[in-house]
Design brief:
Blueprint lengths: L1 H22 L5 H15 L4 H36 L1 H13 L4 H12 L5 H19 L3 H18 L4 H9 L4 H27 L25 H22 L9 H8 L1 H17 L6 H34 L2 H11 L4 H16 L2 H12 L11 H13 L7 H10 L3 H27 L3
Length: 445
Protein backbone atom coordinates (compact mmCIF):
# COMPACT_ATOMS: atom_id res chain seq x y z
CA UNK A 1 0.00 0.00 0.00
CA UNK A 2 2.81 2.40 0.89
CA UNK A 3 4.48 1.69 -2.45
CA UNK A 4 1.24 2.37 -4.30
CA UNK A 5 0.78 5.68 -2.52
CA UNK A 6 4.36 6.61 -3.36
CA UNK A 7 3.85 5.88 -7.06
CA UNK A 8 0.61 7.85 -7.17
CA UNK A 9 2.32 10.76 -5.41
CA UNK A 10 5.10 10.52 -8.00
CA UNK A 11 2.63 10.81 -10.86
CA UNK A 12 0.76 13.70 -9.28
CA UNK A 13 3.99 15.56 -8.54
CA UNK A 14 5.21 14.88 -12.10
CA UNK A 15 2.08 16.48 -13.51
CA UNK A 16 2.51 19.45 -11.15
CA UNK A 17 6.13 19.70 -12.26
CA UNK A 18 5.06 19.88 -15.93
CA UNK A 19 2.55 22.60 -15.07
CA UNK A 20 5.11 24.65 -13.12
CA UNK A 21 7.78 24.30 -15.80
CA UNK A 22 5.38 25.50 -18.49
CA UNK A 23 3.55 28.20 -16.55
CA UNK A 24 6.20 29.53 -14.16
CA UNK A 25 9.58 28.66 -15.66
CA UNK A 26 8.20 29.40 -19.16
CA UNK A 27 9.81 26.30 -20.64
CA UNK A 28 8.49 24.77 -23.83
CA UNK A 29 6.08 21.86 -23.34
CA UNK A 30 8.52 19.50 -25.10
CA UNK A 31 11.35 20.26 -22.66
CA UNK A 32 8.96 20.14 -19.69
CA UNK A 33 7.70 16.67 -20.62
CA UNK A 34 11.23 15.32 -21.15
CA UNK A 35 12.26 16.62 -17.71
CA UNK A 36 9.16 14.92 -16.27
CA UNK A 37 10.31 11.65 -17.87
CA UNK A 38 13.62 11.82 -16.01
CA UNK A 39 11.83 12.87 -12.82
CA UNK A 40 9.51 9.86 -12.88
CA UNK A 41 12.27 7.48 -13.89
CA UNK A 42 14.67 8.54 -11.14
CA UNK A 43 12.04 8.57 -8.37
CA UNK A 44 10.77 5.12 -9.30
CA UNK A 45 14.29 3.67 -9.31
CA UNK A 46 14.67 2.99 -13.03
CA UNK A 47 18.28 2.46 -14.17
CA UNK A 48 19.54 5.72 -15.67
CA UNK A 49 20.24 4.24 -19.08
CA UNK A 50 16.82 2.59 -19.06
CA UNK A 51 15.23 6.02 -18.66
CA UNK A 52 17.03 7.22 -21.78
CA UNK A 53 16.09 4.12 -23.76
CA UNK A 54 12.44 4.46 -22.67
CA UNK A 55 12.35 8.07 -23.83
CA UNK A 56 13.92 7.05 -27.13
CA UNK A 57 11.48 4.16 -27.59
CA UNK A 58 8.48 6.31 -26.65
CA UNK A 59 9.46 9.09 -29.04
CA UNK A 60 10.20 6.66 -31.83
CA UNK A 61 7.06 4.57 -31.54
CA UNK A 62 4.87 7.66 -31.33
CA UNK A 63 6.44 9.64 -34.17
CA UNK A 64 7.28 6.77 -36.48
CA UNK A 65 3.75 6.86 -37.85
CA UNK A 66 2.66 10.39 -36.96
CA UNK A 67 5.56 12.34 -38.46
CA UNK A 68 4.63 11.16 -41.94
CA UNK A 69 0.91 11.69 -41.42
CA UNK A 70 1.27 15.18 -39.94
CA UNK A 71 3.67 16.25 -42.67
CA UNK A 72 1.24 15.21 -45.40
CA UNK A 73 -1.74 16.69 -43.56
CA UNK A 74 -0.01 20.05 -43.25
CA UNK A 75 0.28 20.24 -47.04
CA UNK A 76 -3.48 19.94 -47.31
CA UNK A 77 -3.96 22.78 -44.81
CA UNK A 78 -1.44 25.03 -46.56
CA UNK A 79 -3.10 24.56 -49.94
CA UNK A 80 -6.47 25.43 -48.42
CA UNK A 81 -4.94 28.60 -46.98
CA UNK A 82 -3.09 29.75 -50.10
CA UNK A 83 -5.86 28.99 -52.58
CA UNK A 84 -8.57 30.93 -50.77
CA UNK A 85 -10.51 27.74 -50.19
CA UNK A 86 -11.59 28.74 -46.69
CA UNK A 87 -13.13 31.97 -47.95
CA UNK A 88 -14.90 30.11 -50.71
CA UNK A 89 -16.47 27.73 -48.18
CA UNK A 90 -17.62 30.63 -46.02
CA UNK A 91 -19.06 32.69 -48.86
CA UNK A 92 -20.99 29.81 -50.36
CA UNK A 93 -22.45 28.70 -47.04
CA UNK A 94 -23.42 32.25 -46.02
CA UNK A 95 -25.06 32.85 -49.40
CA UNK A 96 -26.92 29.55 -49.08
CA UNK A 97 -28.05 29.87 -45.47
CA UNK A 98 -28.54 33.63 -45.53
CA UNK A 99 -26.63 36.34 -43.69
CA UNK A 100 -28.95 36.13 -40.69
CA UNK A 101 -27.79 32.54 -40.23
CA UNK A 102 -24.13 33.45 -40.59
CA UNK A 103 -23.40 31.94 -37.18
CA UNK A 104 -24.48 28.53 -38.52
CA UNK A 105 -22.45 29.03 -41.68
CA UNK A 106 -19.31 29.90 -39.73
CA UNK A 107 -19.81 26.88 -37.46
CA UNK A 108 -19.83 24.62 -40.53
CA UNK A 109 -16.81 26.41 -41.98
CA UNK A 110 -14.98 25.94 -38.67
CA UNK A 111 -15.71 22.21 -38.66
CA UNK A 112 -14.53 21.82 -42.26
CA UNK A 113 -11.52 24.12 -42.13
CA UNK A 114 -10.37 22.68 -38.82
CA UNK A 115 -9.79 19.26 -40.36
CA UNK A 116 -6.47 20.08 -42.08
CA UNK A 117 -5.25 23.18 -40.17
CA UNK A 118 -4.17 24.03 -36.62
CA UNK A 119 -6.54 26.06 -34.45
CA UNK A 120 -4.48 29.25 -34.49
CA UNK A 121 -3.97 29.10 -38.27
CA UNK A 122 -7.64 28.39 -38.92
CA UNK A 123 -8.79 31.18 -36.62
CA UNK A 124 -6.50 33.82 -38.15
CA UNK A 125 -7.45 32.57 -41.60
CA UNK A 126 -11.19 32.93 -40.97
CA UNK A 127 -11.41 36.00 -38.73
CA UNK A 128 -11.43 38.48 -41.67
CA UNK A 129 -14.54 36.68 -42.95
CA UNK A 130 -16.16 36.91 -39.52
CA UNK A 131 -15.48 40.65 -39.39
CA UNK A 132 -16.79 41.26 -42.90
CA UNK A 133 -19.99 39.30 -42.19
CA UNK A 134 -20.50 41.13 -38.88
CA UNK A 135 -20.13 44.43 -40.69
CA UNK A 136 -22.52 43.46 -43.49
CA UNK A 137 -25.24 41.93 -41.30
CA UNK A 138 -25.00 43.99 -38.15
CA UNK A 139 -24.72 40.78 -36.13
CA UNK A 140 -22.39 40.63 -33.14
CA UNK A 141 -18.89 39.44 -33.92
CA UNK A 142 -19.22 37.16 -30.87
CA UNK A 143 -22.39 35.56 -32.22
CA UNK A 144 -20.59 34.78 -35.48
CA UNK A 145 -17.06 34.18 -34.21
CA UNK A 146 -17.67 31.90 -31.22
CA UNK A 147 -19.32 29.17 -33.34
CA UNK A 148 -16.36 29.28 -35.69
CA UNK A 149 -13.76 29.25 -32.90
CA UNK A 150 -15.33 26.48 -30.83
CA UNK A 151 -15.82 24.35 -33.96
CA UNK A 152 -12.13 24.67 -34.78
CA UNK A 153 -11.31 23.59 -31.22
CA UNK A 154 -13.65 20.60 -31.33
CA UNK A 155 -12.12 19.27 -34.55
CA UNK A 156 -8.61 19.90 -33.19
CA UNK A 157 -9.26 17.59 -30.26
CA UNK A 158 -11.62 14.94 -31.59
CA UNK A 159 -11.50 14.40 -35.33
CA UNK A 160 -8.68 12.73 -37.32
CA UNK A 161 -6.81 13.45 -39.48
CA UNK A 162 -6.18 16.52 -37.33
CA UNK A 163 -2.74 16.02 -35.69
CA UNK A 164 -3.77 15.93 -32.01
CA UNK A 165 -6.75 13.65 -32.59
CA UNK A 166 -4.65 11.44 -34.85
CA UNK A 167 -1.94 11.18 -32.19
CA UNK A 168 -4.17 9.81 -29.43
CA UNK A 169 -6.05 7.51 -31.81
CA UNK A 170 -2.72 6.02 -32.91
CA UNK A 171 -1.47 5.73 -29.31
CA UNK A 172 -4.64 3.92 -28.28
CA UNK A 173 -4.51 1.74 -31.41
CA UNK A 174 -8.02 2.84 -32.34
CA UNK A 175 -9.50 2.35 -35.79
CA UNK A 176 -9.24 5.80 -37.40
CA UNK A 177 -12.30 5.34 -39.58
CA UNK A 178 -14.38 4.49 -36.53
CA UNK A 179 -12.96 7.46 -34.61
CA UNK A 180 -14.01 9.70 -37.51
CA UNK A 181 -17.51 8.24 -37.78
CA UNK A 182 -18.23 8.27 -34.05
CA UNK A 183 -16.42 11.59 -33.72
CA UNK A 184 -18.79 13.22 -36.19
CA UNK A 185 -21.73 11.98 -34.12
CA UNK A 186 -20.26 13.71 -31.06
CA UNK A 187 -18.70 16.77 -32.72
CA UNK A 188 -21.66 18.10 -34.64
CA UNK A 189 -24.14 18.36 -31.71
CA UNK A 190 -21.36 19.78 -29.50
CA UNK A 191 -20.61 22.45 -32.11
CA UNK A 192 -24.30 23.33 -32.50
CA UNK A 193 -25.06 23.64 -28.79
CA UNK A 194 -21.86 25.49 -27.85
CA UNK A 195 -21.83 27.49 -31.08
CA UNK A 196 -24.96 29.07 -32.60
CA UNK A 197 -27.29 28.27 -29.70
CA UNK A 198 -25.08 29.54 -26.88
CA UNK A 199 -23.45 32.44 -28.74
CA UNK A 200 -26.81 33.86 -29.84
CA UNK A 201 -27.98 34.07 -26.24
CA UNK A 202 -24.73 35.47 -24.90
CA UNK A 203 -23.77 37.96 -27.61
CA UNK A 204 -26.53 40.40 -26.59
CA UNK A 205 -24.67 41.13 -23.35
CA UNK A 206 -21.14 41.48 -24.73
CA UNK A 207 -19.74 44.70 -26.14
CA UNK A 208 -16.93 44.70 -28.66
CA UNK A 209 -14.41 47.43 -29.36
CA UNK A 210 -13.09 46.43 -32.74
CA UNK A 211 -11.91 49.10 -35.16
CA UNK A 212 -11.84 46.55 -37.97
CA UNK A 213 -15.66 46.57 -37.97
CA UNK A 214 -15.64 50.13 -39.30
CA UNK A 215 -12.58 49.94 -41.55
CA UNK A 216 -13.29 49.50 -45.28
CA UNK A 217 -11.96 46.33 -46.91
CA UNK A 218 -11.61 45.24 -50.50
CA UNK A 219 -13.19 41.81 -50.92
CA UNK A 220 -11.49 39.15 -53.00
CA UNK A 221 -13.47 38.66 -56.24
CA UNK A 222 -15.27 35.35 -56.62
CA UNK A 223 -13.29 34.57 -59.75
CA UNK A 224 -10.10 34.47 -57.70
CA UNK A 225 -11.43 31.73 -55.42
CA UNK A 226 -11.67 28.00 -56.11
CA UNK A 227 -15.04 26.35 -56.70
CA UNK A 228 -16.99 25.20 -53.64
CA UNK A 229 -17.44 21.58 -54.70
CA UNK A 230 -13.80 20.84 -55.46
CA UNK A 231 -12.68 22.65 -52.29
CA UNK A 232 -15.03 20.65 -50.10
CA UNK A 233 -14.08 17.38 -51.76
CA UNK A 234 -10.35 18.12 -51.33
CA UNK A 235 -10.74 18.75 -47.59
CA UNK A 236 -12.87 15.67 -47.02
CA UNK A 237 -10.90 13.30 -49.30
CA UNK A 238 -8.63 11.76 -46.62
CA UNK A 239 -11.62 11.20 -44.33
CA UNK A 240 -13.62 9.66 -47.17
CA UNK A 241 -10.81 7.22 -47.97
CA UNK A 242 -10.24 6.15 -44.35
CA UNK A 243 -13.95 5.82 -43.56
CA UNK A 244 -14.48 3.81 -46.75
CA UNK A 245 -11.78 1.39 -45.57
CA UNK A 246 -13.51 1.01 -42.20
CA UNK A 247 -16.87 0.33 -43.86
CA UNK A 248 -15.18 -2.20 -46.14
CA UNK A 249 -13.81 -4.00 -43.09
CA UNK A 250 -17.35 -4.36 -41.72
CA UNK A 251 -18.52 -6.28 -44.79
CA UNK A 252 -17.90 -9.82 -45.98
CA UNK A 253 -15.58 -8.41 -48.64
CA UNK A 254 -12.80 -7.96 -46.07
CA UNK A 255 -11.65 -11.53 -46.80
CA UNK A 256 -11.69 -11.05 -50.58
CA UNK A 257 -8.63 -11.16 -52.81
CA UNK A 258 -8.41 -7.39 -53.12
CA UNK A 259 -8.69 -6.66 -49.38
CA UNK A 260 -4.97 -5.91 -49.19
CA UNK A 261 -5.30 -3.23 -51.85
CA UNK A 262 -8.22 -1.59 -50.04
CA UNK A 263 -6.35 -1.68 -46.72
CA UNK A 264 -3.28 -0.20 -48.41
CA UNK A 265 -5.24 2.69 -49.91
CA UNK A 266 -7.16 3.20 -46.66
CA UNK A 267 -4.01 3.40 -44.55
CA UNK A 268 -3.71 6.99 -43.23
CA UNK A 269 -0.30 7.46 -44.84
CA UNK A 270 -1.53 6.41 -48.29
CA UNK A 271 -4.83 8.30 -47.89
CA UNK A 272 -3.07 11.55 -46.98
CA UNK A 273 -0.45 11.15 -49.71
CA UNK A 274 -3.23 10.77 -52.28
CA UNK A 275 -5.03 13.77 -50.78
CA UNK A 276 -1.90 15.93 -50.76
CA UNK A 277 -1.28 15.33 -54.46
CA UNK A 278 -4.94 15.91 -55.21
CA UNK A 279 -4.71 19.24 -53.34
CA UNK A 280 -1.63 20.17 -55.38
CA UNK A 281 -3.81 19.75 -58.46
CA UNK A 282 -7.24 21.00 -57.32
CA UNK A 283 -6.12 23.96 -55.16
CA UNK A 284 -2.74 24.51 -56.78
CA UNK A 285 -2.17 23.84 -60.45
CA UNK A 286 -5.82 24.43 -61.31
CA UNK A 287 -5.65 27.81 -59.57
CA UNK A 288 -2.64 28.95 -61.62
CA UNK A 289 0.15 28.14 -59.15
CA UNK A 290 3.29 26.69 -60.70
CA UNK A 291 5.46 23.90 -59.35
CA UNK A 292 7.99 26.30 -57.82
CA UNK A 293 5.20 27.96 -55.84
CA UNK A 294 3.89 24.57 -54.71
CA UNK A 295 7.38 23.68 -53.51
CA UNK A 296 7.55 26.97 -51.58
CA UNK A 297 4.16 26.32 -49.95
CA UNK A 298 5.30 22.85 -48.94
CA UNK A 299 8.49 24.15 -47.36
CA UNK A 300 6.54 26.80 -45.47
CA UNK A 301 4.01 24.37 -44.04
CA UNK A 302 6.56 22.04 -42.44
CA UNK A 303 7.95 24.62 -39.99
CA UNK A 304 4.86 24.92 -37.74
CA UNK A 305 4.56 21.12 -37.64
CA UNK A 306 7.94 20.72 -35.91
CA UNK A 307 6.74 22.08 -32.57
CA UNK A 308 3.62 19.95 -32.42
CA UNK A 309 5.62 16.85 -33.40
CA UNK A 310 8.07 17.39 -30.55
CA UNK A 311 5.27 17.85 -28.01
CA UNK A 312 3.46 14.74 -29.23
CA UNK A 313 6.71 12.77 -29.22
CA UNK A 314 7.54 13.90 -25.69
CA UNK A 315 4.04 12.90 -24.63
CA UNK A 316 4.69 9.45 -26.07
CA UNK A 317 7.98 9.28 -24.19
CA UNK A 318 6.23 10.22 -20.94
CA UNK A 319 3.69 7.45 -21.52
CA UNK A 320 6.49 4.93 -22.14
CA UNK A 321 8.35 5.91 -18.96
CA UNK A 322 5.14 5.55 -16.94
CA UNK A 323 4.74 2.00 -18.25
CA UNK A 324 8.39 0.95 -17.97
CA UNK A 325 8.71 2.31 -14.43
CA UNK A 326 5.79 0.17 -13.27
CA UNK A 327 3.91 3.29 -12.26
CA UNK A 328 1.33 2.83 -14.99
CA UNK A 329 0.49 -0.70 -13.86
CA UNK A 330 0.12 0.32 -10.23
CA UNK A 331 -1.99 3.31 -11.20
CA UNK A 332 -4.16 1.07 -13.34
CA UNK A 333 -4.83 -1.24 -10.40
CA UNK A 334 -5.79 1.69 -8.17
CA UNK A 335 -8.07 3.28 -10.74
CA UNK A 336 -9.72 -0.05 -11.53
CA UNK A 337 -10.50 -0.53 -7.84
CA UNK A 338 -12.41 2.76 -7.82
CA UNK A 339 -14.95 1.35 -10.30
CA UNK A 340 -14.76 4.63 -12.19
CA UNK A 341 -15.60 4.60 -15.88
CA UNK A 342 -12.38 4.88 -17.90
CA UNK A 343 -14.22 7.26 -20.24
CA UNK A 344 -15.10 9.61 -17.37
CA UNK A 345 -11.54 9.31 -16.07
CA UNK A 346 -10.05 10.10 -19.48
CA UNK A 347 -12.32 13.12 -19.87
CA UNK A 348 -11.61 14.44 -16.37
CA UNK A 349 -7.81 14.12 -16.56
CA UNK A 350 -7.70 15.77 -20.00
CA UNK A 351 -9.92 18.63 -18.80
CA UNK A 352 -7.82 19.24 -15.68
CA UNK A 353 -4.60 19.20 -17.69
CA UNK A 354 -6.10 21.61 -20.21
CA UNK A 355 -7.08 23.95 -17.40
CA UNK A 356 -3.60 23.69 -15.90
CA UNK A 357 -1.23 23.98 -18.86
CA UNK A 358 -3.45 25.42 -21.59
CA UNK A 359 -2.22 23.12 -24.35
CA UNK A 360 -4.88 20.74 -25.66
CA UNK A 361 -2.19 18.52 -27.17
CA UNK A 362 -0.30 18.17 -23.87
CA UNK A 363 -3.58 17.49 -22.07
CA UNK A 364 -4.53 14.78 -24.55
CA UNK A 365 -1.18 13.00 -24.51
CA UNK A 366 -0.97 13.11 -20.70
CA UNK A 367 -4.50 11.80 -20.22
CA UNK A 368 -3.87 9.02 -22.73
CA UNK A 369 -0.78 7.92 -20.84
CA UNK A 370 -2.71 7.75 -17.57
CA UNK A 371 -5.68 5.73 -18.86
CA UNK A 372 -3.71 3.46 -21.21
CA UNK A 373 -2.56 1.00 -18.48
CA UNK A 374 -6.12 0.31 -17.29
CA UNK A 375 -7.64 -0.40 -20.71
CA UNK A 376 -6.69 -4.13 -20.73
CA UNK A 377 -9.10 -4.50 -17.80
CA UNK A 378 -11.91 -3.36 -20.13
CA UNK A 379 -11.51 -5.68 -23.13
CA UNK A 380 -14.96 -4.80 -24.50
CA UNK A 381 -14.30 -1.05 -24.48
CA UNK A 382 -13.61 0.26 -27.98
CA UNK A 383 -10.41 2.38 -28.06
CA UNK A 384 -12.18 4.77 -30.44
CA UNK A 385 -14.49 5.77 -27.58
CA UNK A 386 -11.52 6.36 -25.29
CA UNK A 387 -9.97 8.61 -27.94
CA UNK A 388 -13.21 10.62 -28.09
CA UNK A 389 -13.36 10.86 -24.29
CA UNK A 390 -9.82 12.21 -24.13
CA UNK A 391 -10.50 14.64 -26.96
CA UNK A 392 -13.74 15.89 -25.43
CA UNK A 393 -11.94 16.61 -22.15
CA UNK A 394 -9.22 18.59 -23.93
CA UNK A 395 -11.81 20.90 -25.50
CA UNK A 396 -12.73 22.19 -22.04
CA UNK A 397 -11.29 25.21 -20.24
CA UNK A 398 -9.66 27.25 -22.98
CA UNK A 399 -8.76 30.01 -20.58
CA UNK A 400 -5.89 32.37 -19.71
CA UNK A 401 -3.34 29.52 -19.76
CA UNK A 402 -4.17 28.83 -23.42
CA UNK A 403 -2.56 30.93 -26.17
CA UNK A 404 -5.68 30.38 -28.27
CA UNK A 405 -7.75 32.17 -25.63
CA UNK A 406 -5.72 35.36 -26.08
CA UNK A 407 -5.97 35.13 -29.86
CA UNK A 408 -9.75 34.95 -29.59
CA UNK A 409 -9.92 37.81 -27.09
CA UNK A 410 -7.76 40.17 -29.15
CA UNK A 411 -9.37 39.43 -32.51
CA UNK A 412 -12.86 39.81 -31.04
CA UNK A 413 -11.91 43.05 -29.31
CA UNK A 414 -13.50 42.03 -26.00
CA UNK A 415 -12.43 42.10 -22.35
CA UNK A 416 -10.91 39.13 -20.53
CA UNK A 417 -14.13 38.69 -18.54
CA UNK A 418 -16.24 38.71 -21.69
CA UNK A 419 -13.86 36.24 -23.35
CA UNK A 420 -14.27 33.95 -20.34
CA UNK A 421 -18.06 34.26 -20.49
CA UNK A 422 -18.20 33.69 -24.23
CA UNK A 423 -15.41 31.55 -25.66
CA UNK A 424 -14.20 29.76 -22.50
CA UNK A 425 -17.70 28.83 -21.39
CA UNK A 426 -18.51 27.73 -24.94
CA UNK A 427 -15.58 25.27 -24.87
CA UNK A 428 -16.85 23.89 -21.56
CA UNK A 429 -20.36 23.42 -22.97
CA UNK A 430 -18.93 21.69 -26.03
CA UNK A 431 -16.79 19.43 -23.85
CA UNK A 432 -19.67 18.34 -21.63
CA UNK A 433 -21.91 17.76 -24.64
CA UNK A 434 -19.25 15.68 -26.36
CA UNK A 435 -18.53 13.43 -23.37
CA UNK A 436 -22.27 12.88 -22.78
CA UNK A 437 -22.67 11.73 -26.38
CA UNK A 438 -19.54 9.57 -26.07
CA UNK A 439 -20.98 7.89 -22.98
CA UNK A 440 -24.22 7.32 -24.88
CA UNK A 441 -22.30 5.79 -27.77
CA UNK A 442 -20.50 3.46 -25.33
CA UNK A 443 -23.84 1.85 -24.51
CA UNK A 444 -24.35 1.05 -28.18
CA UNK A 445 -20.86 0.09 -29.41
Amino acid sequence: MDNTLFLIATLVSAIILVILLIMKARLHAFISLVIACFYVGILTGMPLLKICSSIEAGMGSTLGFLATVLGLGSILGKMLEESGGAERLARTLINTLGKKRANWAMMIVGLLTGIPVFFQVGFVLLIPLVISVARATGLSIVAIGVPMGVSLQIVHCMLPPHPAAMAIAATLNADLGKVILLGLVACIPAAIIAGPFYAKILSKNIKTDLKALTEPVTPVPDSALPKFGITLFTILLPMIIMVAKTIFDLTSLKTSSYADIVNFIGNPITALLISAFFAYWSLGLCRGFNRNQLLKFTEQCFGPVAGILLVIGAGGAFNKVLLDSGLGTQLGDVLASLSLSPLILAWFVAAMMRLSVGSATVAMMTATGIVLPILPQYPNLDPALVALAVGSGAICFSTVTDSGFWIVKEYFGISVMDALKSYTLATCIASITAICITLLLSTIF
